[in-house]
Design a protein that fits this description.
Blueprint (H helix, E strand, L loop, with lengths): L1 H14 L20 E5 L16 E3 L2 E10 L4 E7 L8 E6 L4 E6 L9 E3 L3 E2 L2 E9 L8 E5 L23 E5 L5 H5 L24 E5 L22 H15 L3 E7 L5 E5 L1 E3 L28 E3 L4 H9 L6 E5 L8 H18 L6 E7 L5 H23 L13 H11 L7 H7 L9 H11 L3
Parallel strand pairs: 1-3, 11-12, 11-13, 13-18, 14-17
Antiparallel strand pairs: 2-3, 3-9, 4-7, 4-8, 4-10, 5-6, 5-9, 14-18, 15-16
Helix pairs in contact: 1-9, 3-5, 4-6, 7-9
Length: 458
Amino acid sequence: MLRSIFILFTLCMMQAQEIPYGLPRYFNIELNEPIKKITTDIPNVFDTSLFDQTNPVAEADNDIYYLEFELDRGEPIHFILLDSIFHKSSTLYFIDLNNNGWVGPYTKNSFLNNSQIITGQMKTKNILIELSISRSTTPKNHLSSIIHPKKMKVPDSKIIRRNIYREPNNKILLTGYWPPSNEAIRPFSQNHLLNPEGWIGGNWENRGFDIVSYFPIFTDPDCQSCGQGYGDLEVDYQDTSEDWWNIVDSINPIAIITFSRGYIDHSWELEWQYFNYFYWTADFTEPFYPTPTPPDSTVPTNTRRYSSLPMDSIVSKIESSGLGLTPYIDYTQGAGMYLSEFMGYHGVWHKAKMDSVNIPCVVAGHVHVGGLIDWDTVRQAAEITLREVIKVVDEYQRLPGDIDQDGVISVYDMLAIIDHIIGVTELEQDQFNRADINFDTYIDVFDLLLLSNIILDW
């Protein structure tokens, strides 16, 4: 009787950015006095007198203030910055004194779309804050508080809807911007000028997928302030958008991973969300901003689209790889209001467009690559990420919903799901994987609805 109710309910329902690069002055300035140091156990809120009794270093029309935090333990943290206490002439960096990496710069323009900013993650016991501010301005605290990621409220995972259109497709698209992200994916370029050692992406590792990559070229392949570059996906909104749609139309990728340089550290930062922003950071050539802006006219301004990469498994594999990287998922902000976010948004936007017409694009998402990672390591990390994505695509390409593996999706498979939901039986792991049609790691009524749609060929 209960199973009949479930079936009836189902049938009724069916009808119904990198931040633009900047170099802290700390690395090129002479400090004649000791830096004020604060030892703390990760405060929740900062005192307004944070920079009191801190002597500035004079440079041109600015004063530069330094303040060192020595934390009791080297655990991951983010700083919170508030627009209301951030001066229009300020430039702020957070420097990791253990490896001379940094996150930033943060300026007043960083708040164009938000009243507060949560900085990139740092995992160190020694953090140096560099605040540059006009000499006519009295310094004030620019920091609101610290977030410990383990205490952050992690949003619910987005449901990845599985398409029922089954035309074979074996292309996986990788894109990059600034080094070292270019070097992570260079071996997958089919352009001999960019990849003279030859394309390795054909049926990569005998996994059944062709991997292709696109990225801009820079005169200095290890550049810091790189400029616009040239070739595919230049650091230019209009060029990127034009190249992007040409690329995806030509190869119809079943999965997309976009990469770019993130903070100047050893992080492997998986971005969870991307915004259809109205305000963006200017690029190098007029028009300096996306045209149109916001770029996606099909949804309202500031609409979020989400990554569907298997982020948890990627983080786990990178952590256990021995590469010495710091992988994490950024649930806090977008991807930087610059070409990184623009590129990441295009990836998940394309997936949404394909979902709407039942053409399979299984996953899409963006990875920010730490600027201190060497080329060999970044290639290994990109390959680890790619293998985890291929596992998800492989799962997708198995016949969804064929729980009893009789080669046919039928009402018997629906009954197996219902029995599992109401506790009559428990699915084995391989059955569970085939029943989890939307990849949300739960077997529930949503899987039942999708299975019903497949049976009715909706």
